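User: Some background: our group keeps a shared notebook of sequences we're curious about, and every so often someone picks one and asks for a predicted structure to add to the entry. Today it's my turn. The entry only has the sequence so far, pasted here. Could you supply the structure so I can complete it?
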Amino acid sequence: MKLVLKWIVLMSLLIIFSNCNNSNPSEEDMRLIEKGQTARLINEPDPEEVRMRDLIQQYDTFIANRFDELDLPGLAYAIVKDGEVVSMRSYGVQEKGEEGLIDEHTVFRLASLSKGFAATLAGLLVDQGYIGWNDKITTHLPKFQLRSAAQTDALTIRHTLSHTSGLKEYSGASLIYKDLSCASILSGLKNARIEEKPAKVFAYQNAIFSAISEVGKATTDLSYGTLLDSMIFRPLAMTDASSSYKSMMTNENRAIPHTFSSSKGWSSVSIRKKWYNVGPAAGVNASISDMAIWLQAMLGHHPTIIPEAVLGEIFKPHIPINEDSKYYETWAPGLANAYYGMGWRIFDYKKHKIVYHGGFVRGYRPEMGFCPNEDVGIVFLTNASKNELSTTCVHAFFEMYFAPRVPR
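Assistant: Of course. Here's the predicted structure to add to the notebook entry:
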């Protein structure tokens, strides 16, 4: 009797396989059936794909709701998983009161997300033998000097890109605001206050960080913009990306910046030239389609263009970030440790390594974060000045991603 029932069950399952899949079960399925175990249907959806689909829907609902609540002018975001762009969405308009919509090719200013490009470009120059990470700045810029001769002699490319120059935080900011050239800004740092020897403390910078622009020019005889174009933008087919005020202003599909006031809400403002003079720190423009490619590259999916060794070096923790950093507030309580690499912040978040950076220039607040081990990440662009959604968008994504998985 048991044998008869066994064969009835076997034949029933064979019919199900035949009707549902129009193919015969595999030998492995047959062995499972004979052992009384459940066989996985050929067309059964992959659990991880289902989880990502649900997560994307959950995240988009979060974004849409916050976008409406904050009445933001426009935004765009992209999610990459296992090398594929699994979601790319855009909301709102290029300018409040106008009809032009944000789309996948609308260009935003990246502000300090530009630092990741600078560090990567430096890594490519190292990879090709033009410079070394531990080269002294004076090796390539002999006229460069700081207030102290010893500090000048000790300063390396690695120090400038990891914010461990020893200079007071934001040294040279007044020179940047005067719209001086990068070379003139670096020259002006001879009067900057020195607080510590190189490599000892973290102090965020924009002026000295941009020394890589002049180092690149000295070693290749090419401008920083040309180096970005030839070594990153064109090879990666980032067709909307650029690194100048002129290129931003001549692109008709550009997101206009907005600032907020309690009386008027969000109002459009002009695109400033400021910060393009320190291109490595804050001078890149790009669309969400560009940034999806950039996210793929940072996750290691374009190794012939950006080698693994380059990524490994810039993602290496170089210096702890102070515990009172504002970034701890957003990511607490899951954040155990925070460091700066080169051009990127490195977080130990819920026992996962997160590579992250945010940015701000008037009217723009981009954010980007990714987990190399999980091969997943998100980039978010908006033409709104400081706002709650930009502050929380990357953290919210990883909160959802690392949430306990409930069996279906």
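Suggested note for the entry: The chain has three domains: 2-34, 47-113+236-401, 123-219. The mean pLDDT is 91.
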